[in-house]
Structure formats: C-alpha cells, structure tokens
Amino acid sequence: MLYRKVPKNGDELSILGFGAMRLPVNEDQSINEEKAIEQMRRAIDAGVNYLDTAWPYHGGMSEIVLGKALKDGYREKVKIADKLPVWLCKSREDMDAILDKQLAKLDVDCIDYYLLHALEGEAWDRIEALGVIDFLEDAKAAGKIANIGFSFHGANEDFSRIVDAYDWTFCQIQYNFLDTENQAGTAGLKHAASKDIAVIIMEPLRGGNLSRPEAPPQVAALWDTAETKRAPVEWALRWVWNAPEVTVVLSGMNVDEHIDQNLAIAAEAEADSLTDGELELISKVADKYIELMPVGCTGCQYCMPCPAGVNIPGCFELYNTGNMFEEPQQVTQFRYAAFSGGAISGKPRKASQCVECGQCVEHCPQHIDIPERLKEVAEYCEVDGIDDAAKNFLKGDQSH
After folding, report:
1. Parallel/antiparallel/unpaired status of strands 12-14 and 3-5
2. Are strands 170-174 and 145-152 parallel, antiparallel or unpaired?
3. In terms of Cα–Cα distance, which of 182, 152, 184, 172 is closest to 286?
4. Residue 297: which residues within 8 A CB-CB, separation 6 or more?
5. Which H or E run contains 51?
6. How many helices (H) and strands (E) would you count in the chain?
7. Radius of gyration of the chain (CA)
8. Where are the domains of the chain?
C-alpha cells in the first residue's frame, strides 16, 4: 500500500480508502454484516487506513456496521471519516444532536475526519448562516472531531469560494477522467491543493461505470492500442492517482475480487507515473465517451447561472451517465431526485423548470439546443413520488 501525507496534520493516509456506501447486502437489501466486516478488516490488514461513511448510507446502518468492524483492535489502525447531513440541520442544536448520534452509532469518542456533506453554493450559505463553523470548532475543542472538511457537489465557482471561506484540513470531490471540468474539476483540485488542503476523491470510476470490463466497442478499441495492457479499472484509478494533488481515492468495495484488484493497483500507482503517451490515450478515451453521450455537454458552466434555477450541467451529467452506461432508469431517476430535485440543497433545480428563455443557448460553446434537450431530461428523469423517496433516504430512514 502506498501512502500520501495530509499537509496540515502530517497524517499518512493510504491512497486507497474504503467507502462504506455500497457494502454487501442480503436479499432484503439489509447489510450483510458478517461479510461487510470481513471485507473491511481484510482491507485494513492490507494497509487501508481511511474508512468513509455517512448518515444516510444504507438507511442509516452504515455507521453502525463500520463501528462493529472497528472492534477487536481495528479502531487504532484507521482514521474514520463521517459527515454532517447539512440538509437535516435547521439549527445549531440539530448539528450537535446529529454528531452525538453518529458518535454513538460508531461507538467511538472521536471522528477523525468530519465533513459537511454534499455542499453546493446555496447549501453552504444556509448552513454557514446557522453557525456551522462555530459548531465544528466547538466539536473539535471538545475532542468529538479531529479534522474539519467538506464534500462537494456543485459548480466550480462555489467550490472555490467555499475553499477560501475557512481553514479546512481536507475536502472531498468527485473526480475522474470524464469529470475534469464538472463540479470542482481539475481547477478545483489544484486550488484546494494550493492551500495545503488534502483532497479525497469520490466517484473515481463514475459509480463503477468506468471500470466495466465490457467497455463500449469504440472505447475498448482505444484501450487495445496501449503498449502496456491494463484493465479499464486500472487505467481509471491510475489516472486519478497520477495527480500528486490527490491524497486518497475512495472505492465502494463489496466484491472480494474487486478489493484484491484495487489493493494491487494501490501498491503501485505512484504520482506522475503515467507516460505522456498514456495520458494522451486516456484523453482520447474521455473524448470518445463524450462523443457517445446523448448530450455533448462538457460541464464548462458557460450556461450558468440559469434564470429559472435549473442546474443545467448537473441535469445533463445525470442523464448522460444513465444512458451512456445503460444503468437502470430508476437508478438515474433516484440520483436525479437527490441532486436536482432539491433533496440535498433544499431547492429544486430540475430540467422541467426551464422557461425557454434562450439565454443558455447564446453562451453554449457546444451549440447545444439546451431547452429542447432539457425536455428529454425531464421526460427521462422526473417521476412522481421519487423526490420524497430520495428525501427519506437522505434522512437515513431504514424503511425506504
């Protein structure tokens, strides 16, 4: 296992982190605790020392199972990351109550790395006004948390201002070879690193889609031209780890073979180890994926802000991913409800809110007929009742 240092505290973290959002499950979708605990401990024994969970994962049960996995001496071997569900916080009292419940569920005295979960611009403005910084600093002074950070799902300009708003120890962003401009993107990665903020990466494989052995034929043909043959998962992970600004890459591992494969890659993936030719090949693969997208949106954000409040790049990203990788439509609809339906931000940013003003079309470098394509997104992604289901999931409601 390779390790990278957190600039502000000197912690040596494994470059591979264990994400506890997709633990193995039983037929009734409850966590298979015996298997999950065995897998987490096996990863720890192999050198993984950063485990990430959150309030809503597995209907509120992920924190509990992770806590069980850290018995028998394993707690001392790792750093725990957990997150404050900012969408549930209406007051300072809510923040304190949720943190205390998380400590009880994990059965620990202190959470090593504590994040504000899934920030974007408006969510940050709201939670900051409620006094979240005082809450975090008080919790740190009381020894309930050790390091303060945030995870992010918004536009790059909001990421930069959040980074600049506080002396964060770390942050967590979505980053992979398709998402160099979406959300925080490469610019955000470099900006955070320039301030000595450790950067934790989520979705390095776009929900596992970039690691599929059965890549689209046009993509597989490109991979076949490489002098050094690698599986798609290795290309994708090595690309992220190639950036020296990256500290940890999270993987939601629930298959033994995948864990072994990720561990093997994490033993060799040094920063700046890919050749210029290999980087060029990965760029060609990314371009090919973009060609295959239903909507040729690059996430450049030139169409934003939308006067009607639509998160245009976000809507297209979810729609493109669902179609390009042929994920079940209900999965796309659920993720859309969470990120565009207002379940996290509290403010809907759906495609159906478009009023066809045309302002976005004037600014789109790709010359996309955005209002017409948003109609496609609305038809595909928006379904009655799913917004409430997403909200219940984010509450950690085990009945949904």
Report:
1. antiparallel
2. parallel
3. 182
4. 312, 313, 316, 317, 320, 366, 368
5. strand 50-52
6. 16, 10
7. 20
8. 3-282, 293-394
Give which of 299, 47, 3 is closest to 175, Cα–Cα.
299
Tell me how far CA of residue 341 lies from CA of 77, 78, 332, 382, in angstroms: 39, 36, 12, 9
- Ordered per-residue pLDDT tens for the chain, 400 residues: 999 999 999 999 999 999 999 999 999 989 999 999 999 999 999 999 999 999 999 999 999 999 999 999 999 999 999 999 999 999 999 999 999 999 999 999 999 999 999 999 999 999 999 999 999 999 999 999 999 999 998 888 899 999 999 999 999 999 999 999 889 999 999 999 999 999 999 999 987 889 888 888 899 999 999 999 999 999 999 999 999 999 999 999 999 999 999 999 999 999 999 999 999 999 999 999 988 889 988 777 779 999 999 999 999 989 988 888 888 899 899 889 888 888 777 789 999 999 999 999 988 877 899 999 999 999 999 998 877 777 787 787 654 3
C-alpha 13/C-alpha 41 separation (Å) is: 16
Strands (E), 58-169: 79-84, 111-119, 145-152
CATH 3.20.20.100 fits 3-282, yes or no: yes
The answer, as to whether pTM is greater than 0.90, is: no
Place of tokens 């209900």: 330
